[in-house]
Amino acid sequence: MNEVIKIAVLGGGESGVGAAVLAKKKGFEVFLSDCGEIAEKYRNVLSHNEIDWEENQHSESKIFDAHEVIKSPGISEKVPLIQKLKTAKIPVISEIEFAGRFTDACMICVTGSNGKTTTTQLIYHILKKANFNVGIAGNVGKSLALQVADDNCDYYVVELSSFQLDGMIEFKANIAILLNITPDHLDRYENEMQQYVDSKFRIIQNQTENDHFIFWNDDPIISKELRKKQIQGKQLPFSSKSKVEEGAYIENEQVVINLNNNKTTMSIHDLALQGKHNVQNSMAGGIAARVLEIRKEIIRESLSDFQNVEHRLEFVARVHGIEFINDSKATNVNSTWYALESMSKPVVWIVGGVDKGNDYELLNPLVNQKVKAIICLGKDNSKIIEAFTGNVENIVEAKSAMEAVGLSYQFATKGEIVLLSPACASFDLFDDFEDRGNKFKSAVKAL
Predict the structure, then answer these.
(1) What pTM does this model have?
(2) Predicted confidence band at 273 (pLDDT cuts at 50, 70, 90)?
(3) 237 to each of 204, 284, 353, how far by Cα in Å?
(4) Are residue 70 and residue 14 in the same domain, yes or no?
């Protein structure tokens, strides 16, 4: 009689619950454990699928009885429980790794420090318009594991953070997209940039010459790393600065996508996503679409009618001539740099939260040029205040989205912008960046 394989899942959010459901459907004995509270919607899914679970604790006797552990990406490799599991030689993998074992679908995987969600959503939009049987997963949509359990897609567009990539062993991206690499999450990587870079480059592990690697050719960190590596997949760079033989580039304000000497062109002014960084996102998405042999007309149409994701430079309202923009998804300095760079009017900037080892120096030129007042929205704002004192006359603190919006309304005048672009994680005052963005929007609508 075959032994039943036991799976322990750590984390009761979207990723963990999806993995638990898939494991149960594949006939494994499943136990899910979360050291915090599990949201009611996920409890209901676990109960409906008759999955054994616990919250507010980790019962190590049950966890260490497992043959394999699936870890949610939010749990650091450094926590004692994970270290003990590794010492016990119990494999610890990611939900993405686990899900990949049970599907032969084509995986289009997107990573980078900034622009992941926008590019993932854009590629999904193009594939849907081309009538592909496609799912969207990773950090957006339903978890990949849950979709593999419940659906039968031929293609998945998967947004992958460095944390998800860290738990990948045999999983392979058929089309791997690396948008950029800037310092982020260094607190999880012992403040060693190379560790973070290595994590991002895991997106190309296991690729063969039949796969494709799309990357930003202008990124100095990516360029330096490429010189060290042997790349198996077909390389398709995109560049805003120079012409590339195969991939995408800008010429005479036209995006040119060239694969196999077959060019697709489109004016940058017709792109739905405006701003330098969004042109890069559009180029990456366009290359992926051409690799999949989607018709040029569909690509052009999709790049021109795409609507950006919630909480990413999202227009909220105009109140007495003041524009309010929600960029709550900007959880690092570089992401906020892109937001400030795209602003064409004076800005009252709402910033702050959980600092991830941020260096605000990068923002000083843009802050000097564009920001008239700063509202710090976080429990500890000392680093932000120190960074910008002397650059901006008005720097004040707020402890809630409502207070921040009220203060911003006092500082801004007609024809100016209030921009929530925190450059920090949200967990000090909010559940997540979505909660922060939603509370900001509610506060604006209450004005």
Answers:
(1) 0.78
(2) confident
(3) 14, 8, 35
(4) yes
